[in-house]
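Troubleshooting log. The previous run stalled partway through. Resubmitting the same two chains, unchanged.
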Amino acid sequence: MAERRPAASPPLRRRVRSPASIQIRVTGSVLALLLVGGVAVAIASLAYGRQAARQSYDRLLLGAAQDIAESITIVTGGPVTALPLSAFELLAQAPDDRIFYAVRDAGGALLTGQEDVTPAGASREAREARARDRSGPVFYDARMQGEKARFVTVPRRFAERDYSGVVSVTVGQTMLARNDMAYVLTRDALIAAGVLGLMLMGLSVLVIRSALRPMERIADEMLARDPYDLTPIVTPLPAELSVMTEAMNRFMGRLDRQVGAMRNLISDTAHQLRTPVAALRAQAELALEEEDVAKRQQMVARLAARTRSLGELLDQMLSRALVIHRTDSAPRLAIDLRDVALEAVESGDHQLLAPGAELELLIGEEEVCVLADEMSLQEAAKNMLSNALRHGLAPVRIGVSTEGREAVLWVEDSGPGPEDDLMARIGNRFERAAAARGQSAGLGLSIVQAVATAFGGRLTMARSENGFRVALRLPLPEETQ
Amino acid sequence: MISRIALLRRRFRPAPTGPGRAASHEGPPAGRPRTGARAAILAAALALLPALPLTAQEATARFGAAQGTPFTVYSTTDIAILRPALEAFTAANPDLSIRYEQWGSNALYAEARKQCRDGAGPADVLFSSAVHQMVELVNSACAQRYSSPRTQALPETRRWRDELWGVTHEPVVTIYNRRLMPPGEAPRTRFELLDLMRRADPRYFGRVATYDIEASGLGYLLAFADSLEATTFGALLEGFARIDAVATCCSAEIIEGVAEGRYLIAYNVLGSYLQPQSTPGLNATVGVILPEDYTLFLSRAYMIPRSAEKPEAAQRLLDYLLGPEGREILRRSGLVFERDPDVQGLPESSERAVEIDPTLLIARDRQRRASFIAQWRSVFGDAEPAP
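Second attempt completed without errors. Output:
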């Protein structure tokens, strides 16, 4: 493990050190937003600016036309305009624009103002006539000496004794000031949008930098770590990034447990094998020196039995390591405990352990499901069964039941069970007494114990009226209750 | 009954000729000696041909070397007054020569209008004191645009659309005859003038002069500016009528009349015509008053017609006149007035510029003009001279 760490580090480091790509992506998005937003703002503000300029200057135009219309009086049978200065002062608000005005009587004849004999003037007069027919002001665009201009025609009705009819006042102005105003409004809006965009970009750079700074801290921390240190990372991170450290912490936790399990296996194995192997060597040396054939035969038979027992011990230890490994890594599935019990009976292992022993299977009609790893459960069941067959009295019963919120897989023999002091110690990782004898009783139950713990359950041992019962109790999943 | 409007010529005061419609000219045909005979012939011609088309210039002159590219200036300003400036310009720009035509303001306007309509004409520069007519020409898109640092340096009130520029700065003054007027009686303000006329002193009968607003575009503009400026104008008209004031067409006629003692007071005279070099001995006999209630200031308007064939030359002349040398020459010619508080005592707040802007279009309005002239005539005609 320690040797693989440095090899694993560089990719980790690269990932932490690659905020540049995030930066580029965010900057790109902001730029795209600015571009699209800028175009939208430009179009919108141009339209808005034009409308605002049109509205405000139309008001001036209308005000001037109404001023002039106000000033018309009927003098000796004809309308006379006392052209007011205020009207022209209103129009002079657009200081550089040229002005057109004309006052026409009901027949369309020019009373005062500017003559315009161009075709544009003719079409304008048609519009003026239309405005006379209406009662309100009419705005329109037309040309004034070839230049685009805006006009308004205001009708004024007279019903005097000596004059009756509609006099129309037309005022027009070129568009320099309007276009200026629209341009200025648009330009200001674009400047504001641009400044805002730059600020947004700057802000995004700062936020990304500050958000990713903890990542660099973690990378540095990881590099500085002792290779055997698998404790969780506690550096505080923003919620979005803590997902990563949590995953890493879980991963390191699993690694930690597996390393621990392996270490235990090695030390257990060394510990448990030392005594039986020493005994075997002693017996083998004795057998070598024994000259009596009958005695030697007897010693070799004992040697064979011990060897077999040692083999079983090894099997058990390996299966326990397997179980511990799997309970940590294998996915949890819904397992029917009845299948586990059935498999334990049908595998026929008991025939080898105790040929001819009576075995009963007690399972109900309904399935008893738990969330667990099937192989680990089977290993536990086999160990419970072989334990009963080896140490208990026939007949032996294996069964599945539910008790309250627990699913129970139990094995019962007809004997009295172990002594009380042994029972207190039973289920530990290994049992010296058993080991000393080259047998595996304690180890078997310790596998069951490990399985129970891994899946959130427990191991119980109790004397019943029929004998001694060992039970693996696992919690029922929520939805089956 | 006394004449309503008298078209007066020097040396004689003719019988009433009725409302004059003759060509106006506020300047005399300067640049040559003004002889009585010539003026009498001119006056007779004008009196006899009132319906003459308004197309003839009054005088012409050439400035600059013969080989210089000529360009044409139409102006209402007397040749004599503008001569130093034009000579200095052609001296500084030997590649150009100026063909200078002096026109009456109404005739100049009519000719410019025609050239604008035709889209062609000889004029490269229009330079007129009838600013309202020039504003109307610009408003009718008859001008072309020009902008330079010197035109931009002009105050807002002296330019419009970068097509019309007020080159001069001339006060509109009241003048009086120093020898014949009692020393204390010279009116410092319009109110004093009013009081003087209300007293109906027989000494002043027929001896107060002002412009005929129908015959002179400038006279109309000044009277119109007065009418916008203060309510005293109506009373002033009434006063003129009361003492049988004389309305005449021309600056030179008025000034000479005052100098010779035919008139005691003349109201609304363009100060630039009071040049010692054009009228010898003027300072001794003619006193000048810048009215203290307010003094109108006029800027002659310079315009480059759209149909100008040599606009670059016109632009160079404009820049020259606005530049330091041109300005100094114009100042010496009396066309750019400079305040001298020690001498004049005129408070700055009483300066009223005739602003070059579109509000001057009102002065050109047909009905408003008609009613203004009607008011002028009715006041002159209805008022009886005091017994």
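Takeaways: Residues 1-17, 430-436 of chain A have pLDDT under 50 and may be disordered. Chain A touches chain B through 24 residues (CB under 8 Å).
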